[in-house]
Design a protein that fits this description.
The protein is of the alpha/beta class and about 200 residues long. Helix content is about 25%, strand content about 25%. One of its GO terms (cellular component) is cytoplasm.
Length: about 200
């Protein structure tokens, strides 16, 4: 799709066609959404605008206190969602980047690498309702670690029982074992239409 083109009829997920496939081999993610973020932001439409609107639609009317984005590409979607909701934004970082008191959580990312993520310990108070945002949920390890950090600090990531004020959002949530674990327990939102989900799960 032309980077500057906006279709006259914009169905949910139209902007997924803006994403670029991996041309660098197995050490990289299979699909790169960053081209979507380059799409022009027009007064009434744009790839990023429509993507964020679709991610937030299931949470309309929910009481969200803060949006948290996961290092690093989750910062883009998370900050955009926070600006749309007029809420604060919290960056959940890879270990070693924060110069303040932190809480840490080890995890295994989609490529099988062992890592640690951190969040500042003073940002989340007990009962704070947090919407967690990342670019992609593949194996679910990164998002699950972020959930554990928020919950250890007393924040609330909504479970699938009333009330469900917050949850987890990503462009794609794959139906992997870890992805299903998250979707079965938390209120989730993603942008992939059901007809395309099998292709995303199979990295096609």
């Amino acid at each position: 799709m032309d980077l500057c083109h906006t279709p006259a009829t914009r169905e949910k997920g139209w902007y997924l066609a803006l994403m670029a496939p991996n041309v660098k081999g197995p050490n990289f993610a299979w699909l790169d959404p960053s081209r979507l973020y380059c799409h022009p932001q027009l007064p009434s439409a744009g790839g990023l605008q429509d993507c964020v609107a679709d991610l937030l639609q299931p949470f309309q009317g929910d009481a969200i206190d803060m949006v948290a984005g996961i290092d690093a590409m989750g910062f883009i979607l998370g900050a955009a969602a926070a600006a749309t909701l007029r809420r604060g934004f919290l960056a959940i970082r890879k270990a070693g980047h924060l110069c303040v008191q932190t809480v840490a959580q080890p995890y295994t990312d989609y490529s099988g690498r062992e890592k640690v993520m951190e969040v500042r310990s003073d940002a989340i108070s007990p009962g704070l309702r947090v919407l967690l945002v990342d670019q992609w949920v593949e194996t679910g390890g990164t998002m699950r670690a972020a959930i554990e950090l928020v919950e250890r600090l007393g924040g609330v990531v909504a479970v699938l029982s009333p009330p469900v004020p917050i949850g987890v959002a990503a462009i794609c949530m794959e139906n992997s074992e870890g992805g299903k674990w998250i979707q079965e327990r938390y209120k989730c939102s993603h942008c992939v239409p059901p007809s395309l989900q099998p292709r995303f799960d199979q990295h096609q």
